[in-house]
Amino acid sequence: MGRSLRHLCVLAFMFVLACGGLRGEAERMQPQAATLALSARMPGPNAAGLAQRGERVLAADKPVRPVAAAAAAAAAAAAAPVVAAPTPHEASHDLPHDPRLDAERSRERDFPLYGVAFHVQAQVFAEPSDKAEVTGYFRRGGQLRAKAGVRGKGCNTHWHEIEGGGFVCAGRGFMFGSTPQVFADAAAPATVHDDLPYAYSKTLQADAPQYYQLPSRSEETASQAALRASAAQHPVAKPAAVSSEAAKQASEQAAEALPANVRMLMRPGFYVSVDSQEASEGRSFARTVRGAYVRAEGLTPVSISALHGTQLPAGAQLPLGLVYRAGLTRMHRNPMSGALEPAGSLALMQPFALTDEVVSEGARRYRVARDGSVVPEDALRVIEHADRPPFVPPRARWISIQLSTQTLVAYDGKTPVFATLVSTGKEEHPTPTGIFRIQSKHVSTTMDGEAGTDEAYSIEDVPWTMYFSGGVALHAAFWHQRFGRVRSHGCVNLAPADAHWLFDWTTPNLPSGFHGVNATKDNLGTFVVITP
Fold first, then answer.
1. Strand ordering across the sheet containing 374-376
2. What is the C-alpha to C-alpha distance for residues 308 and 502, in angstroms, rounded to an integer?
3. Which helix (H) or strand (E) holds 231?
4. CA torsion, points 290, 292, 298, 303, in degrees to nearest 10?
5. Strand 283-288 versus strand 293-295 pairing type
6. What is the pTM of this model?
7. What per-residue confidence (pLDDT) applies to 33?
8. Rounded to 5 degrees, what are φ and ψ at 118?
9. pLDDT tens digit string along 306-315?
10. Is residue 208 classed as helix, strand or coil in its secondary structure?
11. In what order do the strands lie in the sheet with 174-177?
12. Which uninterrupted H or E stretch holds 75?
């Protein structure tokens, strides 16, 4: 038994030696790439880790060859080049490049300050001086980014150069900080991507008060009593009985007698831009974008018109017919008999690319369209190609308005790109003819006039206004749909979608965040050519 036990021990010892030898040989034959891969995954200090693992093997098994193998492995790891882990900057090259991140980093570096406007119209100047040209303005609540302040004329604090161009004075309609700034009392910003930048409502009641602040029930009762007393003391004469100047003077006297908390009295047909609805003591008020308050039950919301003109595809040719008398019947020619047969009703502003062919049936004349439609000529406003005036540069954008047809065409050089119907001034308020340039553009601006007359009007925040001759402008008209006919007080009325398109297409360009911009020598206005 003892001899057998000794024999077994000897065999076990030889087996251990053999296994150790094989293991060491395997380690010596291991490809160097494996060591390189390991060192790449575990750079630097992990070489010491290999030696530590060798010591633990030695302590556990006590063979000779594993010590040599561990030393060889450690030497190989030390001799192999160590591949450092990529830095965050290097690693970023493996990620998809996002230009927006570069733009935001640049913005943070160049315009580190945050600002907000707290005036109704906070002005932007071309230079850090109040004597410099006014290039535009922000509306109350408008946010902006700016550089650090500098000293300049006409500003008791600092002038800040702003993103979008120009300088503003801290404290003169603007305040700044290192974090985003807000003005709590401001209305919601204009929705510049929609065809109407605000919600609008029409006044239904006569002499509806517009309050500076939300009145309590007792304040409202006292104001109404004061208004009745004032009306009895300062009656406004009927426009037919007195001259317009006398009527206007009487209206101004009545306005001076308004209670302190009443901003104005509104007539049926006046319009307000609505920011929100507020309830107080069982009453409902509309808060206007300007911050005034009107009884909600005296207003009716305005629905946006779906009318729009026609963007002309590349290569499109004039003449083009636009329907201005909806409801008339479109015809087509029977291919067998050649007779004209009804083919559906015409829709307002429906476009037809016309040929030169004119046909008559009885007393009615028809224009033949390129698609074969036969359209009553008296249903159409026909747009012919207009020659570019010599004062307009060959490649300039310009707008052609023809008063006799009540049409507008936008040209890029000699190419027509957009056509629509307009409403220009009535005989007593004619739209001027000539060659003009857009002088200023406004996301919205209030228009009113003819105080004390039957023609009195007040429209808050008329959208997409582009002044080109004094107080005469192209602008959206959401209060009517009679385009293709004269109607206005001299301005060029457009459907909201058309005014929005032209506003974005024309110059001067409106910088982001601005509510209005003036034309300058570096930001000239688009040409407007109006012919009889």
1. 340-345, 329-333, 374-376, 364-369, 351-361, 320-323, 380-383
2. 12
3. helix 217-233
4. 20
5. antiparallel
6. 0.79
7. 35
8. -125, 5
9. 999 999 999 8
10. strand
11. 143-146, 113-117, 174-177
12. helix 65-79
Nearest in space to 438 (alpha carbons), one of 330, 527, 530, 337: 527
With beta carbons less than 8 A apart as the criterion, state whether 176 and 167 touch. Answer: no
Quick check: 119 pLDDT over 90? Answer: yes
CA dist., res. 183 & res. 476, Å (int): 29
What pLDDT was estimated at residue 370? 95
Helix 32-41 × helix 65-79 angle, to 10°: 70
| 524/89 Cα distance (integer angstroms) | 44
Handedness of CA 480, 486, 492, 494 (dihedral sign): positive
Q: Quick check: helix, strand or coil at residue 491?
A: coil
Are the C-beta atoms of residues 517 and 136 closer than 8 Å to each other? yes
Q: Report residue 122 as tokens.
A: 């906070």
- Residue that the structure tokens 């010596």 belong to: 28
Count other C-beta atoms under 10 Å from residue 505's C-beta: 14
What confidence category does residue 50 fall into, taking pLDDT thresholds of 50, 70 and 90?
Answer: very low
pLDDT tens digits along 195-251: 999 999 999 999 999 999 999 999 999 999 999 888 877 665 555 555 556 555 655
Query: What DSSP state is assigned to residue 384?
Result: P
Element housing 299 (H / E):
strand 299-301
pLDDT greater at residue 299 or residue 40: 299
Q: Cβ contacts of residue 262 below 8 Å, gap of 6+?
A: 209, 210, 211, 212, 223, 227
- How many CA atoms lie within 13 Å of 323's alpha carbon, on the beta-carbon side? 22
Cβ pair 168, 150 in contact under 8 A: no
Beta carbons of 530 and 406 less than 8 angstroms apart: no
Question: How many C-beta neighbours within 10 Å does residue 223 have?
Answer: 18
Token pair belonging to 300: 């009716």
State how far Cα 86 lies from the chain centre.
42
Closest CA to 306 of 268, 343, 265, 348: 348
End-to-end CA distance of the chain: 132
The count of C-alpha atoms lying within 13 angstroms of the C-alpha of 148, restricted to the half-sphere facing its C-beta, is 1
Q: What is the spatial distance between Cα 271 and Cα 256, in angstroms, rounded to a whole number?
A: 22
Tokens standing for 355?
């040929």
DSSP string over 15-66: HHHHHHHHHHHHHHHS-HHHHHHHHHHS-TTHHHHHHHHHHHHHHHH--SHH
If you compute the radius of gyration of the chain from its CA atoms, what whole number of angstroms results? Answer: 40
